[in-house]
Amino acid sequence: MTPLVSIGIRTYNGEKFLRDCLESLRAQTRPSPILISTSTAWPGLEALANDYGARLEIHSPNAGIGRDWNAGLAKANSTWVTLAHQDDRYLPTFTERTLSVAARHPDTVLVMTGYIQETPGSSQDRRNAVWFSPDRGLTWDGPHYVDAEGEDA
């Protein structure tokens, strides 16, 4: 059975951050397969991926972030894919709530969610996390916004 969501993490020198990201993804109320994509593996990355049940895709050459994302996306086997950065941390209901909103809008092919950027001494609301449905193709009919509760905004 094809999973509904895959989570792709692009990592580059991520030893410092990746464990926290994986921990937050494993704590989701709606579990999803996790794929780590990199062209710059480091000692211990394979063991870390195994600890969290994540699939590891190591490819070459090192051609930058776009190549890492595309290599990961090519290996995702799901209706929806979300792209995570190695230093992202997710609230436990992130996947569940995002899928709930997408289900109420069946023609959706791209979802952008808000996030909070935390730095020492401050935090800022942002809109940037992206989900998309690769098998539906991308067409643009203008943005449709929903609030944090999934209600039309």
Describe the model.
- The chain contains 4 helices and 6 strands.
- The chain is α/β, with parallel strands linked by helices.
- It has a 6-stranded mixed beta sheet with strand order 3-2-1-4-6-5.
How large is the count of helical segments? 4
Number of DSSP-assigned strands = 6
The ordered H/E elements are EHEHEHEHEE
* DSSP strand content: 25-35%
Q: What is the topology, as strand order, of the major beta sheet?
A: 3-2-1-4-6-5
State the share of residues found in helices, binned by percent.
10-25%
Low-pLDDT runs: 136-143
What do the pLDDT scores average to? 79
Return the structural class: alpha/beta
Separation of the first and last Cα atoms:
34 Å
The coarse silhouette is globular
Q: Please state the CA-atom Rg, rounded to the nearest Å.
A: 16 Å
Main beta-sheet strand count, sense and barrel state: 6 strands, mixed
Task: Name the features.
single chain, 6 strands, 4 helices, alpha/beta, 6-stranded mixed sheet
Briefly say what this structure is:
By secondary structure, the chain is of the alpha/beta class. 24% of the residues lie in helices and 27% in strands.
Spell out the blueprint of helices and strands.
Layout: E1 5-10, H1 18-26, E2 34-38, H2 45-51, E3 55-58, H3 65-75, E4 80-85, H4 94-103, E5 110-119, E6 122-132
Parallel strand pairs: 1-2, 1-4, 2-3
Antiparallel strand pairs: 4-6, 5-6
